[in-house]
Amino acid sequence: SGEKAFEVYTWPERLVVEQEESQEVNCSTDCDQPETGGLETRLTKTLLAQEAQWKYYLISNISEDTVLYCHFTCSGKQRSKGLNVIVYKPPKQVMLKLQPTWVAAGKSFTIECRVPAVEPLESLTLILLRGSETLHNQTFGRENPAPQEATATFNSTAHREDRHYNFSCMAVLDLKSHGGRVFSSVSHPQTLEVYEPRQDSQMVIIIIVVSVLLFLFVTSILLCFVFSQRWRQRRTGTYGVHAAWMRLQRAFQAQ
């Protein structure tokens, strides 16, 4: 009962490693004369060096999340400590697609970002950008199984000023909560060609042409009517005087 309790330590305390990578791990204890000690794991391990109170291993080909157990026995009592291993795949390739790339102002288009398998998926964020402006953030929960590709899709409406910006996608893998660092990668920028709808301008031209032709047609009808009336008045006026003169002559002859 008076015996001092001993502790087991691991170094590092947390391990974040890229898939298929190797990592060195140290197991140690504050027991002065441990009877036995070692490292329990399903992974391939190689003992690099050791002393009574510590053992130094190389863990090879780490392919999946796991827990390593350092253990020591001191005065017939065994204690162990687990070391959590998180395996990650950084976003090395980010692909952006605009559909369509040629769009009329006011019409919709789709921004799609795809990243080949990234792990852990719950630590990944896909950010869709227009210039430096964030259009959409896509995160992934633990319930989502790791897919062949992580995908984010966003529907937007084309504006005239969009032609002056580059569209891109940034993939961020944040492993700080696991004791790791932040990895990020950005897609090649894409441009969106925005044009004014041709149908509207053509309709304006058609309306103008039809209006001008209609005006000319009505004007020509009116001019024809005016000239014909004047010509008829001239003819009617001349014949009327002649007829009156003839009636007057007949009246005198009758007398």
From TrEMBL:
SUPFAM superfamilies: Immunoglobulin. It is found in: Membrane. The chain crosses the membrane at residues 203-227. The keyword Glycoprotein applies. It is a single-pass type I membrane protein. Its main location: membrane. One of its GO terms (cellular component) is membrane. Pfam families: ICAM_N. Keywords: Cell adhesion, Disulfide bond, Glycoprotein, Immunoglobulin domain, Membrane, Repeat, Signal, Transmembrane, Transmembrane helix. PANTHER family: INTERCELLULAR ADHESION MOLECULE, INTERCELLULAR ADHESION MOLECULE 2. Belongs to the immunoglobulin superfamily. ICAM family. This is Intercellular adhesion molecule 2. It comes from Daubentonia madagascariensis. The lineage of its organism: Eukaryota, Metazoa, Chordata, Craniata, Vertebrata.
